[in-house]
């Protein structure tokens, strides 16, 4: 990719992958497990978990935007060994300890009523991680993913990050890395959550915004009518903050990263299509005239077909 990238297309980092396979995992040790929602009475339970991977092949080999695998011990309800679950890293490449021995992730407990039995449904890996105590050992694999990483030259671009829920994880690591490298360009993070109490790393991000003149941290709260703009999804910020965001989005330096709930990309693409002039839109989305004439009826199944993100849009979305 690196030799053929068109001007302003990112040349992404080349990152190691699959150094540990789920069938032959390594052992990571939990060294920290803290609540990371803004308020203790949040609607969801999300924890910041730090795992010491020293002595495994993961040491110094993981990058923000990549994920690691966790393989729970035991068997599932069909008697088969538990499968690997992926968790995005929220650390910079140097880890939480500055030496690439401790990497962190942001885990949301999967808790529900069982669809059929109506009994309490607890996701296996997320609750294992959230319940874990300092000193607990975990079976880990990875790193996974090479498309959702920062470019080789951090300073060659500006960044617009969209996050919902635990989709914030990679951006925490990326921001830490950018600012540690003395990044002086523009970076905007738009973070969405249902309630203000569910914002993640809110204090860290607010402090970063105070200290870094090029960084804007915008939140979109979808289930509280009381905010300055009422209920908002991340894409709504494109409209309410148009004057601030348009210069960055129309700049040839800008890259878009989207991480979080599967489906969030559709609303963002629609709003970009409505907001941006055609030559700027083309930098992010290729769509034929027919699709552009009916932006309001875009559906998720059209993404990668009639509505195609370019290489300046990085996406990591999951259910
Ligand atoms: C690339 C990637 C990165 C990810 N990063 C993160 C991250 O940073 N943080 C994070 O928290 N998660 C992340 N995830 C999601 C994570 O991998 C797990 O899918 C999630 O934690 C649930 O796993 P679990 O073992 O707790 O649940 P599981 O035990 O796997 O249960 C979930 C499954 O059970 C079924 N199910 C769900 N609800 C019900 C119900 N009510 N009744 C019956 N069945 C049900 C569904 O089929 C669902 O797939 C990521 C996923 C991907 C693919």
Distance between the termini: 29 Å
**Domain module tally:** 2
Q: What would the CATH topology of the largest domain be?
A: Rossmann fold
Shape: globular
Briefly note the structural class of the backbone. alpha/beta
Bound molecules: flavin-adenine dinucleotide
What's the CATH first level of the largest domain? Alpha Beta
Total number of helices: 8
Name the helicity range: 10-25%
Could you tell me the number of beta strands? 15
- Beta-strand percentage? 25-35%
CATH architecture of the largest domain: 3-Layer(aba) Sandwich
Largest β-sheet summary: 6 strands, antiparallel
What string, H for helix and E for strand, traces the elements in order? EEEEEEEHEEHEHEHHEHHEHEE
Major sheet: arrangement of strands: 4-3-8-1-2-5
CATH superfamily heading of the largest domain? Nucleotide-binding domain of ferredoxin-NADP reductase (FNR) module
Low-confidence stretches: none
Taking Cα atoms only, what radius of gyration do you get, to the nearest Å? 20 Å
Mean pLDDT: 95
Give a written overview of the molecule.
With 319 residues, this protein is of the alpha/beta class. It has 2 domains: 26-144, Elongation Factor Tu (Ef-tu), domain 3; 154-318, Rossmann fold (3-Layer(aba) Sandwich). Helices cover 20% and strands 27% of the residues. It is built from 8 helices and 15 strands. The protein has helices spanning 124-131, 169-180, 202-211, 236-240, 242-249, 264-275, 278-281, 289-292; strands at 26-35, 46-52, 67-70, 85-88, 102-108, 111-113, 120-122, 137-144, 158-164, 187-193, 215-221, 254-261, 285-287, 307-309, 313-318. The strands form 4 sheets. It has a 6-stranded antiparallel sheet with strand order 4-3-8-1-2-5, covered by helices on one side. Strands 11-10-9-12-15 form a 5-stranded parallel sheet. Strand 6 and strand 7 form a beta hairpin. The chain is globular and about 55 Å long. The two termini are 29 Å apart. The mean pLDDT is 95. The structure holds flavin-adenine dinucleotide. Residues 67, 85-88, 105-108, 110, 112-115, 121, 123-127, 166, 169, 316, 318 line the site of flavin-adenine dinucleotide.
